[in-house]
Amino acid sequence: MKKILMTLVMALLSASAFATFQYSVVESPVQGVWDDGGQDNGVYGYAYTIQVTEGTGSIYIVDKINNLYSMSGNNERLSLKADMSSTTKYGWVDVASGTKQTAEGSTTTFYNHQKNENNDLVTQTGYKLGEFSAGDEIGVWLTPNGKNYTGASVFHKNNPVNSNQMTFRDAYVGTDATGMNLHQLDFKDGVGSIFFGLAGVASPEPIGQPLPGVVTTFALGLCGFGMFGKNKRKKK
Fold first, then answer.
1. Out of 47, 137, 147, 173, which residue is the most buried by the measure of CB atoms under 10 Å away?
2. In a domain, 2, yes or no
3. Which domain range does residue 109 map to?
4. Distance between first and last Cα of the chain
5. What domain count does the chain have?
């Protein structure tokens, strides 16, 4: 009985520590145009946002990996196309206020595998934008390598996050070699396309604040053990 009780306690702590974190990439139903009202502030393609629908967690922008055998073959990684050297060079846009926010900036590895001894160890880096909760809606902004202007997945060029060099964006452009969904921002000035994926990591819940239903389940389990103990004593 002690072993089973301990299992229940561990399950309670485990369920308390991790919550569900869900988000979706939502594409605008209205296609962008280049000449928007004669102001040249449009962007081709479709604007897109990240909408958090449940829980709290971190969102990362992640390298496109198109070659699982060679790092040199992955010539569209974020650090080769965008300036990821400083958190002031990329980040997120608060859709509600229209303001540009800098990234949190820590990195993590989402893919790390060597096919065999004759191939490179291929790694896929994720760059943390920040921590977000249900109800948040954000865009992604980047600075092309070697440039001093930015562009985002949201808003027209009347918002300063988007420079006149911004040309195109697309929320759905297939997957990379790891199966990750890809998103796109395009620029003039010889930059071309910048591709990236998105990854979310749920934030741990404080111990002592179990998820809804866990306390009830635990209490029912204890009641069951109480009844089991009574029946066992009666039999004796």
1. 47
2. no
3. 19-203
4. 17
5. 1
